[in-house]
Here is the input.
Amino acid sequence: MKVIRPLPRRFFDRPADQVARDLLGSRLVVRGADGRVSRHMVCETEAYLGAHDLACHAARGMTPRNAVMFGPAGIWYVYLCYGMHWMLNVVTGPPGVPAAVLIRGVGGHQGPGRLTRALGIDARHGGLPAARETGLWFEAGQDVPPRLVARTPRIGVGYAGAWAEKPLRFVVDPETLVSVEDVGRRSRRRPRRTEA
Here is the structure.
């Protein structure tokens, strides 16, 4: 049986838009309090590129809330939105460049607040590495063909001027992706021998 390893930190040490695109088709893996592990295909992400991106939390500088964004890549940035929804982000790029990717949808959980509530993700995960030992990490999944990826403006950032129109949201239909994955599995199976 093939062992699937967590995505390494170097995967995240790249520009946020590249990471956001490449996370599509990967698996967000969660180890619950009972020790059970669940895997969820990433199907929607948003990139926040750094202090120059007016939709990014770091656009006005470092604060106690966003300080983790200024650190190394591959760290979870988790914050509370509207006092009720936890938002799960992973930090990208080199230290000092406050960029991150928001995970907006995985598997059957669409919407960043819904997915964190469904998967039990909250402030406890903030500042921890996206690694197996912390109970929350990514694993490689399948490559997503460009024809299946939609790029749109990010959601809820109308305050960011021209940055609100940048196509930094990446979406793939999870049902389409699953069907492509199933076809790939079938094509890799050996054909049955038939008797002459």
